[in-house]
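Exercise 7b. Backbone tokens:
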């Protein structure tokens, strides 16, 4: 079932590295989203001035622009490298500048890139944050292990991983704005996903 409105998918890259495998993966997901008919935006945190958040100054730097980019999206992909078993500080800082006004009712897809064995904790931690923000978190998520061999020269070279990343982008389009369209939750199509709030 096609989404009943024009879809905008944004992806926030939680890696600041110039040669970021997380950014590579998010671009693959966004390409798939675009192929599925969505307008897409990569929110590259290298381009945002976001000092460590101070609760007394929630509009510091480019925080208003970040919040606008998130608020305008029907679906948001959150991508992070694995840092000490959790998601990255730049992504956490960016999320701390946002709130339920930006994320509430928004479809969110999760992607995590690890240098070592199969990742789990960062995705769990992000899912908890999204639940707190009242976002709709997609059941389909992507954990990319052994990224040094999975991503080379700006491309995902493992076909199975590439397919899962592309599916994340496609699924984000399919269920974008799900909070506003109960028929998507009810599963109007045979075999449709049935997301649960904050799950």
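Sequence design result:
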């Amino acid at each position: 079932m096609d989404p009943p409105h024009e879809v905008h998918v944004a992806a926030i890259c939680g890696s600041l590295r110039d040669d970021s495998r997380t950014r590579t993966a998010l671009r693959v997901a966004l390409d798939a989203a675009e192929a599925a008919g969505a307008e897409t935006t990569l929110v590259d945190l290298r381009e945002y001035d976001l000092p460590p958040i101070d609760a007394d100054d929630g509009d510091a730097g480019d925080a208003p622009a970040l919040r606008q980019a998130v608020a305008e999206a029907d679906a948001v992909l959150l991508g992070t490298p694995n840092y000490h078993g959790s998601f990255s500080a730049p992504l956490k800082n960016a999320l701390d500048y946002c709130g339920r006004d930006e994320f509430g009712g928004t479809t969110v897809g999760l992607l995590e890139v690890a240098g070592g064995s199969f990742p789990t904790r960062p995705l769990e931690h992000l899912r908890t944050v999204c639940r707190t923000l009242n976002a709709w978190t997609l059941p389909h998520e992507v954990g990319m292990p052994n990224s040094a061999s999975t991503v080379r020269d700006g491309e995902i070279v493992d076909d199975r991983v590439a397919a899962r990343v592309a599916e994340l982008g496609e699924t984000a389009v399919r269920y974008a704005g799900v909070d506003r369209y109960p028929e998507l939750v009810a599963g109007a199509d045979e075999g449709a996903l049935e997301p649960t709030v904050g799950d």
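Instructor comment: The helical segments are 21-35, 63-71, 89-96, 100-103, 121-132, 147-150, 159-174, 182-186. The chain has one domain: 8-186.
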